[in-house]
Amino acid sequence: MKSSKVLRRRLARSASITVLAIACVSPAIAQDGQADTLGGASPADIIVTGFRNSVQTAQAEKREATGAVDVIKAEDIAKFPDNNLAESLQRIPGVAISREGGEGRSISVRGLGPEYTRVRINGMEAVATTGGSDAGGGVNRGRGFDFNVFASELFNSLTVRKTASASVEEGSLGATVDLQAARPLDYKDNFVIAGSARAGYNDLSKAWDPRFAGLVSWQNDSGTFGVLASGAYSTRTIKETGHSTVRWSPAGVNGGFNAASTLPGYTAAQINTAPAADGSNWDSLIYHPRIPRYDTWTNDIKRLGLTGAVQWKPSDRTEITVEGLYSKSETKRQENYIEALSFSRTGASGKSQTIIRDGEVNDQNELVYGVFDDVDMRIESRHDEFSTTFYQVNSELKQELSDTFRVNGYVGYSKSKFDSPVQTTVVLDRLNSDGFSWDYRDNDRSPTINWGFDPNNPASWSFINGTSDVRIRQNEVTNDYLSTKLGGQWDLAEGFKLSFGGEYRRFRYDTFESRRFVAETSSGTLTPAQVAALTTPFNGVTGDPAYGGYVIPNLQGFVDTLNIYCNCVTDINGRAVDFRVNDRDVAGSNPNATAASNTGNIKEVDKALWFQVDFEQEFGGITIRGDAGMRYVKTQQTSFGYGLASGVATPITVKRSYENWLPSMNLVAEFSPEFLVRFGAAQVITRPGLGALSPGGNLILQAANQVFNQGNPYLNPTEAFNLDLSAEWYFAPGSLLGVSLFQKDIGSLSGTQISTLVPFNQLGFPLNLATDQGLAPDVPVTVRRTINGDGGKLKGFEVNYQHQLDFLPGIFSNLGILANYTYVKADLKYPGPGGIGVVTGPLTNLSKHTANGTLFYEDKLLSLRGSVSYRSGYVESFGGGARDQNTEEGVNSAINVDASIGVNITDALTLTIEGNNLTNERKDQYIDKDNRVVLNHTFGRQFYFGVRFKY
After folding, report:
1. pLDDT less than 50: residues of the chain
2. What is the pLDDT of residues 803-827, one digit of tens each?
3. How many CA atoms lie within 13 A of 59 on its CB side?
């Protein structure tokens, strides 16, 4: 983790920029008092006038809430100025986001990651998935929700439910997030038309991108029938540059360095000390970057979203709503690398050939400076094209049968399909190059690298059979939900209401991956003239780090010259090369079964019954209100995948079921109109991750990486008992001070069981999968399998402060402050080093500290807002889950500063300027407790210039 001195400098810098900007891109933050069994927003509360009034409306809702529920509501269309929904949600206490390509992708709530958070769209559960870089998690094959699929303008209410009620579907340990699109009867006016047009500019990509949104809503004079349609379209060009290492490895693994190596202060034997299986000598080993390289990535993204809604109230006792939503996100992604590969290679042609000529080891036993001979170099180009298409249709009926009895019904269907028809990597290599060096001594996140030759010259590179990769992969992930609900409410007596209901939900998950039949290095050999025709100049990067140009492989040239997409056996310079790829019949079409674990499907059927009593009574001048109830759910699960026996992929189907009884209670004690105390208790569950439930396995067998991942369809859900206690003081109009305490007693978390250094020839795969890549038949492979491990306690607190400074003189009375801070801690047990024993460490994806601060100014002419969001570092794997004899892997802390300015030209027209990531914050991933750099990238600052109107 970064030092406190560095952190203080960054906090000071961020605070200064925020105060100068006096701007905030965050929308109103509120508490929603509903525990609506069928989802949906409260119509009367959608339209507010101005940011200050929005905060006051939000506080009124918070005061009436039963549970811990936070809401962000848009004042009108396009009022969410963040890049996407995740960035809007991060302003809520306890919510932290993970970024991909410089924008939010997923969220964690109170320290629990995206797998523990459920998302509902217009009242029904949904999953939306997309792809990304390997460092950012790659293709999402889990239950976590990727918020960067949707344009933020499609929704006008985001709700985070932190406590459970029997009336709300199970499945979350952290929170249930509701995304609600606008409905026509939400609006007070009969006719509403609103829209926005913005031009975005990024100072790293130097690209200008459009962003449009619009909404039309109509209702009749009696307010009994309405129709609404909205749409949003945007493009964005993101550039990402920096340094990465993949990870750091001990010098003594992968055969160790050549015996002729010389390193001041060390003998060859000391350099190449082998790691002990139990981790006892890991701290004394010399570590080096596994694949030191410079990276340049670009993302060209298009997003289109459409929503529609019809509402009809044929009588005072009946309301019918039909809603639809469509979204499509398309991305073209290009990754270019120049890298030194020898340090990750095994065998005689790998690291054991490389000679250390000079170097320096620091106090953390890191080889921070080195000069090397006989180093294998590579230039690599990866091109991805992928899209996510999401659509949902749902209908809802609310019917009052009498003054005291009501029924409601809901039917909905949603489908999300991630499709990546192109994920192709082509490389060129240079073997046994002398004079290579790296130097981390001046900057441990961004070294100076000297390649020792001219990487701009195509003659410096070769395409070599058995060495140079051509990776052809295709991915699909489909999730679809069918949800039906039927419920009723009965007013038993004054201050008592009984609610009850039943639910049927069917969820299907289908995943498919296609790869080449044969080893990806079986690609033929090209002549120098052919290689020259397959390269394209790259000019390098200015900034930090700055690095010179080099040629990169030209994918289209490979397609034209090698016919790599033919799905056939073709001839390359007299050599037969197999470019066939598997189809969905993995057992019949993919003899090596490397794509087995990412091909399969899971079906879940959930049947639930619940009841809940809502009450409100007064005792001795104190109003006590709340809800208490029970939920029963039975889950029927069918998992299909491919097992491996003697190298043959065999279809396997596993069926199972389990039941859960989930009691819950929420209490509120109002001691005065200004002060109240809340208490919540609930038994909750999260179902196992989808990727872990496959009965199959996935083999990663490359010169740089040998891992076998196995699934486990018998995983049990993670159970927890949650306790929440909070107090809120509304000490002045528009002002609030709240403190919340929470604890989650987690019974069992899914964890990774490690079996290290299992010989490849004991796994049942064809031996040629190893030998074709120059690996020994008994090369050690790390085997990973997900199991139900030990649990633990998660504890924390939140502080929420809001103050409208209307007591100040003059224009200063238009200022306001919104601030929150969350502290979370959870120490859990993990497999120890090498999979031996048990160690205690933090929960993955948990940041101990998150904080948000907003300073805003608003009058009739100007709306100025500035916001700072802070997330402390967090681990992504720990103990035996970390790789290459390292103790942990994670992401360092980040501070993001955003700002906006709005000028009201008329009551209907506003000019806007917005800025995101104003301090050009970097993404900084690390490995080991000594904070060795894995990835350090910059994305640039994003600016938007636009106009917003409403009539």
Report:
1. 1-49, 76-78
2. 999 899 999 999 999 999 999 999 8
3. 27
d(CA 149, CA 151): 7
Helices (H), 677-767: none
- Up-side HSE of residue 286: CA atoms within 13 Å toward CB? 25
How far lies 291's CA from each of 257, 471, 590, in Å?
15, 18, 30
**Three-class HEC string of 858-913:** ECCCEEEEEEEEEECCEEEEEHHHCCCCCCEEEECCEEEEEEEEEEECCCCEEEEE
Of 493, 662, 511, the C-alpha closest to 596 is: 511
Check: CB of residue 188 under 8 Å from CB of residue 104: no
Tell me which residue of 565, 666, 686 sits closest to 624, measured CA to CA: 666
- 539 burial type by CB count under 10 A (0-12 exposed, 13-18 middle, 19+ buried): exposed
Q: What is the pLDDT, as a whole number, of residue 28?
A: 32
Q: Please tell me the predicted confidence (pLDDT) of residue 522.
A: 77
Q: Could you please report the per-residue DSSP string of 3-31?
A: -HHHHHHHHHHHHHHHHHHT-----EEE-
Report d(CA 289, CA 833) in Å as an integer: 20
Q: What does the pLDDT look like over 173-195, one tens digit per residue?
A: 989 999 999 999 989 999 999 99
Which amino acid, residue 389? T
Tokens of 317: 């006792």
pLDDT of residue 764: 65
Asked if 145 and 114 count as a contact pair (C-beta separation under 8 A), the reply is yes
Q: What pLDDT is recorded for position 366?
A: 96
Burial class (CB in 10 A: 0-12, 13-18, 19+), 120: buried
Judging by DSSP bridges, how do beta strands 117-121 and 175-180 pair with one another? parallel
| Integer CA distances (angstroms), 426 to 185, 468, 526, 633, in order | 55, 8, 13, 49
pLDDT score at 752: 63
Confidence at residue 49, expressed as pLDDT on a 0 to 100 scale: 40
- First vs last Cα of the chain: how many Å apart? 50
| Per-residue pLDDT at 6 | 43
Per-residue confidence (pLDDT) for residue 33, from 0 to 100: 33
Beta bridge partners of 392: 325, 414
Longest CA span, the chain = 94
Q: How far apart are CA 950 and CA 927, in angstroms?
A: 50
CA 122 centroid distance within chain = 21
Tell me if 609 sits within 8 A of 618, measured CB to CB: no
Q: What is the pLDDT of residue 48?
A: 31
864 HSE (CA, 13 A, CB side):
14
Residue 547: what residue type? Y
User: What domains can you pick out in the chain, each with its CATH number?
Assistant: 4-247+280-524+554-625+662-950 (2.40.170.20)
Closest CA to 309 of 41, 550, 546, 86: 41
Taking the CA atoms of the chain, what radius of gyration do you get in angstroms? 29
What pLDDT is recorded for position 703?
60
